[in-house]
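Key idea: predict the complex, not the pieces.
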Amino acid sequence: MFSQAVSIVLGVHACFLPFLWCFKSAPFCPSTSVTVSSFINICNDFVASKKIPPSRVKVVDLGSGSGTVLFAAAKQGFHCIGYERNPWLVAWARAKTRTQGLSSLVRIYRRSLFSADLSDVDIVYFFAVPSMLSDLERKLDKDLPTSRQVLVVSNGFALPNWKYQQLKNGLYIYLRQPEETKVNTTE
Ligand SMILES: C[S@@+](CC[C@H](N)C(=O)[O-])C[C@H]1O[C@@H](n2cnc3c(N)ncnc32)[C@H](O)[C@@H]1O
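Result:
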């Protein structure tokens, strides 16, 4: 009787927990193939303008879901890091990383995107809900490196206070300049 009750409780959790995660903040909804290929073009333009190979560039997806964006970027040779708090999606994306032979280029952390290490990132991508964007903007202001140019791409929604450079296929594109450039331009 007791073991039956435990099985029922575990079964109910297994079925509904993924959906509970969804309702807590940005729900899982993978970027479309059009969005992903636009993002990859934007990343390729960024590295071409800087004349550096993708292998020297770190791409972070904040809320990486099933890894769609990470895999597309890794196939271009970028080093990719995902932060995702839904354990089912993390397990699924890690398994796909292995089956696609991308383990050397993709790492996925099961933790909040607000704890992401952005200290040496070059490109940041996110597909978040508007209610998260103020906090996300504060994190970017605080944690992005100040010594280099960083490309920030938001799918679907603009950051509340940043001024975007371009809007392409629903992607808001920001180029965060290094501190010394900002000082020079105001002189
Ligand atoms: C709209 S989906 C985007 C998935 C993926 N980036 C893509 O574009 O295909 C948003 C993802 O963010 C995750 N997420 C939401 N809040 C999060 C948080 N605080 N920390 C980590 N992941 C989070 C959700 O679980 C979901 O998988």
